[in-house]
Write a structure and sequence with these properties.
45% of the residues are buried. Helix 6 runs parallel beside helix 8. The chain is globular. The longest helix is centred in the C-terminal third of the chain and has 15 residues. An 8-stranded parallel β-sheet has the order 1-2-3-4-5-6-7-8. The chain is 39% helix and 13% strand. The protein has 11 helices and 8 strands. The protein is α/β, with parallel strands linked by helices. Helix 2 links the parallel strand 2 and strand 3. The termini are close together. The protein has one domain: Alpha-Beta Barrel (TIM Barrel), CATH 3.20.20.
């Protein structure tokens, strides 16, 4: 089974051709696709799921370009604009014209005073369920109830919670809520962004108990490992970022590791030669 990085971003190193959103720092990390491919080749990673980066916000031009140039390497997840008059129109175009297979929902982009589980969220969830787009949630534990409500009303939508749902070691009540969400059988979790989630240094072994709790609740077939490139490069390096799973889940059987390191994401998305 191939090794697929289930969550990362790419952005242009040419802000004239592919502008960044206003307020983006001048000194952001290198994040172009060619740099990523070099790093992946060094460690034998076969491809990745690209999530539209906030640096380009709703301008998907750079990721569109990358998907067109490397169709066997990458699958795209778009970023929804919940403030748009019709938040589904742009997503439909990205799916039809560029082959995007997922949509990220970020509650931080919602209009002030509106909850993610309100009318806009319902509209986006219905759209994704109808079109087969996978929903990705960039959330914190305070949003778990909203995700629970949306998934209850839209059981046909396939959804992923990014980055452990921002649950950190020792947050037992927050972890219990994340584990309880496993009752939604179409819900998956990315075990990713370890340097941010962990309270220790590389290889972030304090996240081991959390992962094994998640395996118990969701099964390894609903978990997927990711590096969160390019952030991981400055945090510990891409190669060591990819090795984290070997340290935090050393007792996994080979078949379980295959699911975690590529099988799960390949079961949700079409690409990478599968």
């Amino acid at each position: 089974m191939k090794q697929i990085d289930a969550h990362l971003h790419v952005w242009s190193n040419d802000p004239v051709k592919f502008p960044f959103r206003p307020g983006t720092p001048d000194s952001i990390a290198q994040g172009d696709a060619e740099f990523l491919l070099e790093l992946q080749a060094e460690v034998g990673v076969d491809g990745a799921l690209i999530v539209q980066p906030i640096h380009h916000e709703f301008d998907h031009s750079y990721v569109n370009d990358v998907l067109a140039r490397y169709p066997d390497k990458f699958v795209g997840m778009a970023l929804a604009d919940p403030k748009a008059d019709d938040p589904t129109a742009a997503l439909q175009a990205l799916k039809d014209e560029h082959g995007y297979q997922g949509v990220r929902l970020n509650p931080g982009l919602w209009p002030d005073g509106e909850s993610m589980d309100g009318p806009v969220g319902d509209r986006l969830m219905t759209f994704c369920a109808d079109t087969g787009l996978v929903v990705g949630f960039l959330i914190e534990p305070s949003h778990f109830a909203q995700v629970d409500a949306l998934c209850t009303r839209h059981p046909d939508a396939k959804v992923i919670i990014d980055h452990f749902g921002s649950v950190k070691p020792g947050q037992t009540s927050e972890l219990a809520k994340l584990l309880a969400l496993a009752r939604h059988t179409n819900m998956y979790v990315k075990v990713s962004r370890f340097p941010v989630s962990s309270d220790s240094e590389w290889p972030y072994t304090d996240m081991s108990e959390t992962i094994h709790e998640l395996i118990g609740a969701y099964g390894v077939e609903r978990l997927m490992f990711a590096t969160d490139f390019p952030h991981v490069v400055a945090q510990c390096g891409y190669a060591r970022g990819w090795q984290i799973a070997d340290h935090v889940t050393p007792t996994l059987k080979q078949e379980q590791r295959k699911w975690l390191m590529g099988g799960t994401v390949m079961s949700l998305f079409n690409g990478w030669g599968n």
